[in-house]
Amino acid sequence: MVLTLGTEVPSTPADGLVNTIWVPTINNIQKPTATEINAGTDLSNYVTLGGWSCSPSQDSISDQRENSAQDYENPGRKKISGPSIEVIDNTNTSHSTQNVAMETLTEGAEGYFVRRYGKPTNSTFVAGDIVNVYAVRVGMSAKVAIAANSVLRSKVNFSVRAPGWAENVKVA
User: Fold this and answer.
1) Rg (Cα) of the chain, in Å, rounded?
2) Phi/psi zone of residue 79: left (φ > 0), alpha (ψ -120 to 50 degrees), beta?
3) How many C-beta neighbours within 10 Å does residue 112 have?
4) Per-residue pLDDT tens for 84-139?
5) Is the pLDDT of residue 1 over 70?
6) The pTM is what?
7) Sheet of strand 41-42: strand arrangement
8) Which of 86, 110, 116, 105 minimizes the C-alpha distance to 20?
9) Which residues lie below 8 Å from residue 36, measured CB to CB, with a gap of 6+?
10) What span, in angstroms and rounded, lies between the C-alpha atoms of 119 and 167?
């Protein structure tokens, strides 16, 4: 499809259209199943706005040639920088029975974060949905500094582990 100059392109507000699911087991991150994802723990309501930090990037491989005055490059190793998730932390509060994120994301836990964009968060996952899947090991958590007009929250660090991550894959 070619867009004509000046063609208006619609955009979709992100509010209410991002899911974050903790899934203990996924057989193939390239083809997660709706059954696997729907059996997970929905953390969407605990993740703070802007609280997902997981920035994939790719290094470049220098490809210099003796017979050229230009430098070339090839795609290199992929990595994730700054992986963490900031969540509501109801520890020791009158809402302590609603603290699923902190109870689930304990240090050393291994599992998968599945993120879906563009559908209402109360929609179940179905075959054909496009998701990102991250195989992770949870690290330490730390309380976020208190600020005026804020809620209690914690930052939970995680590391991406083998088999890695898969972005924009279809749910089977």
Assistant:
1) 19
2) beta
3) 23
4) 999 999 999 999 999 999 999 999 999 999 999 999 999 999 999 999 999 999 99
5) no
6) 0.90
7) 41-42, 18-23, 110-117, 130-143, 153-170, 71-88, 47-64
8) 116
9) 23, 25, 26, 27
10) 16
